[in-house]
Amino acid sequence: MGPLYHINLPHLKTFCYTINKVIHMPSTILVGGFFGDEGKGKIIAYLAKHDEPDVVARGGVGPNAGHTVEVGDKKYALRMVPSGFVCESARLLIGAGVLVNPSVLREEVSSFGIKGRIGVDKRCGIIEEEHIEEDKKDAHLKGKIGSTGSGCGPANAARALRKSRQAKEVKELEEFLCDVPQEINEVLARGRGVLIEGTQGFGISLLYGTYPFVTSKDTTASQMATDVGIGPTRVDDVVVVFKSFPTRVGEGPFETQMTEEKAAELHIEEFGTVTRRKRRIGKWDGKMAAYSAMINGATMVALSGVDRIDPSCKGASTYEELSKEVKDFVAKVEHDTHVPVKLISTGPEISEIVDLRG
Ligand code: IMP
Ligand code: MG
What we know:
Blueprint: H1 2-5, H2 9-23, E1 27-32, H3 40-51, E2 55-58, E3 67-71, E4 74-78, E5 91-94, E6 99-100, H4 102-112, E7 118-121, E8 125-126, H5 129-137, H6 139-145, H7 152-160, E9 177-178, H8 180-189, E10 194-197, H9 221-228, E11 237-243, E12 247-248, H10 260-265, E13 280-281, H11 286-296, E14 300-304, H12 324-337, E15 341-345, E16 353-355
Bound molecules: inosinic acid and magnesium ion.
């Protein structure tokens, strides 16, 4: 009757570890590695649809961010709602760090039909009409910095001065109010998956970006954890999204920027989701990518827009389908960042992706 009475400790440990690996769904933070618009919305939507986390939570500044999500022939542009809304079973949350524009939020909630499953932290800061007016007319913000004019800078300033309203004081938001950290930490305690989507990008972080040509808050992974109320010990993975050809909207230094003529010649012109402004386009910046991966504590890289390096790779969903040129580029990105490239986006639609996570 040996085995029943005789517990082999090392074996038990291995067994528990294996079970834990199988049932443990990690908490993942996704952030932008360059100047925003790296394709975070698409990657988040893919991860949400594929991994089916219990919760998708949004961190970041506020409605200055625009994410684009394409599923089949449907195209969505989002400014407040998490891009992971495409996973129909997921609870959707907006963390306390995020600024809320109540009318933008309500409009998106009704147009995406997600009323029953979205929650807004009761402590979110509120963007008022006066913040938007100030952002649009202020010579420094609009003129020099090239803000999006969505009121985020003035609203964050008012918040720092402790003059702004919180979500719990706004009647229009009453039905959505919740305690985001409480919900997320409970989900994590049950070993269930949480996906946290960051907005903006590393280069426009208030702390680490090209100050003063930056947004009104830090944009790195640690900030996203704070925004939704989880501690650093609760984060399993950090995905940093890099674009093969980085872009920048608004003013500020952009070391690898190319001329408009060059971008036109390569057929890679782009326009902003929120502002419709023409985006400045640049070449791959390995030095910036390495610094960004370091400060974000990246555990994996998601690389977007490889179909712009070689259009023949558009829509590829396996590594084998990629051309030598793209495979070499992926190797270069890994060499520059010292981080494995685990997701390779080959087009805007969510199925156009190579997933190497195994
Ligand atoms: P603000 O965040 O609206 O104050 O704008 C400050 C700077 O950050 C401007 O250069 C904006 O174009 C840029 N910015 C803010 N949010 C985003 C974003 O989501 N993507 C790209 N650029 C952004
Ligand atoms: Mg964007």
